[in-house]
Amino acid sequence: MDARLDRPGRGGIHRGAAQPAGATMTAALIVNPKSGKKSGKGLQLAENLNRSGNAIVIVLDDFTQLPGILVSLAGEGVDTLFISSGDGTIQAIQTELAERNPFAFLPRLALLSHGTTNMTAADLGFGINDLDTQARVIADSEALAAATEIRYRPTLRIANPRDGRVRHGMFIGTGAVWQATRFCQEAVHRTGLKGDWATFATLAAAAARVVFTRPDPGDVGRIDRPHAMRITADGTLRGDGQQLMFIATTLEKLILGSKPFWGGGGGAPIRSTLFGYPPPNLVRWLIPALFGSEDRTPPPGTLSFAAAGIDIVTASPFVIDGEFFDPPDEGPLHIETGPQFGYVCRQ
User: Which of 98, 128, 166, 201 sits at 20 to 30 Å (Cα–Cα) from 80?
Assistant: First the structure.
């Protein structure tokens, strides 16, 4: 299988930190046909564009070809990448651009929620779901130039995972998070549920088990187990001992629109929350932990803070945008901010 570049790009692109009014712009569509349990949305959009004969369309059948694809698109003058996929494909493209960017300037990204999990797109996605409208904007340079809502956000750069592959994503978690994510993915494959429905079903089942059964730290089937962690943020020790989970992100909202952060953030780019073990009463604190204002009363045993760099020592696996990986063999896992991307959120 291979990637297919169906039409060459157009020239005349003004390259700069911002496009001047009336500038010509060129977009390309990258489709992961395996996203969304093969829902077909991305391929339908690609077919619509191919019929118009006025767009660059890539069907990404093989991720090993992604570096060459991006080099080709840079050479064609593309400055906006529409991505039809889930979180994992977005992470792969961001990583390639951040670490080996072939473009003169980072291209803008327009995220289409066509995957099984779409947490990044839920916060930073292209805000129009109609496939015909998406196709019109991709193919029409004037419509593309008229896009006025551009949100800027840095990535999380995961510098030293055990496999040595640097990653640039938007969300990372460890402890109960990786296990809940694994349960959620199993629910997707087992039941066919997608997106928020799969997340809700997983959280509901896990919460019921916590509420109606006694704690058992040794039960690997539970998500409410202790994990030894030592967390340092910007040189300050934030936690050392048994914890339930730790999360960090540069997104403003997470699954189900939740915002499990409080205290104002202090202006640093990475929002983080540490949930201690044992967890607080779930019936009392689940909703306040996930939703509410920045000045809400936090659950007992939790700490929310912002930082520019975070180091984590733990044996627990990690998940970044739905992908699992292990911590380094020695020393802490280091998290820092990557480059700032612009996301096209509205025409």
Answer: 166
